[in-house]
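Figure 3 (text version): structure tokens given as input.
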């Protein structure tokens, strides 16, 4: 069956819940809400643990829930005096092993930069 423009694939919408389903859904919400504070305490504990491999994910989760996924913490006022960061990716060559003691900062970093 091909998709037809302007015709819904689900014209009746979501089916109505019966009383038992409504009761189960409400019980689920109440149980979930009652576990929120202990769960948040556990996440904060993981975020504060220096040895946890999940520390980054816990911190990200807390920030996302507190401020939203796309929160920007730098205001436009603080961005005015920030210099751009330039990262140059250079290929590695075998002959570079012989010259590994040379200083990488010899060349002028602004010579190739165009504004």
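Below: residues designed for each position.
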């Amino acid at each position: 069956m091909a998709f037809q423009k302007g015709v819904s694939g689900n014209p009746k919408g979501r089916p109505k819940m019966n009383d038992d389903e409504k009761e189960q859904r409400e019980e689920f919400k109440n149980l979930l809400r009652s576990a929120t504070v202990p769960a948040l305490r556990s996440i904060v504990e993981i975020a504060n643990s220096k040895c946890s491999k999940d520390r980054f994910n816990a911190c990200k989760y807390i920030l996302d829930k507190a401020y939203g996924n796309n929160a920007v913490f730098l205001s436009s006022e603080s961005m005015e005096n920030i210099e751009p960061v330039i990262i140059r990716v250079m290929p590695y060559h075998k002959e570079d092993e012989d010259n590994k003691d040379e200083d990488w900062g010899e060349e002028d970093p602004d010579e190739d930069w165009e504004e």
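Helices lie at 19-34, 36-48, 55-67, 76-79.
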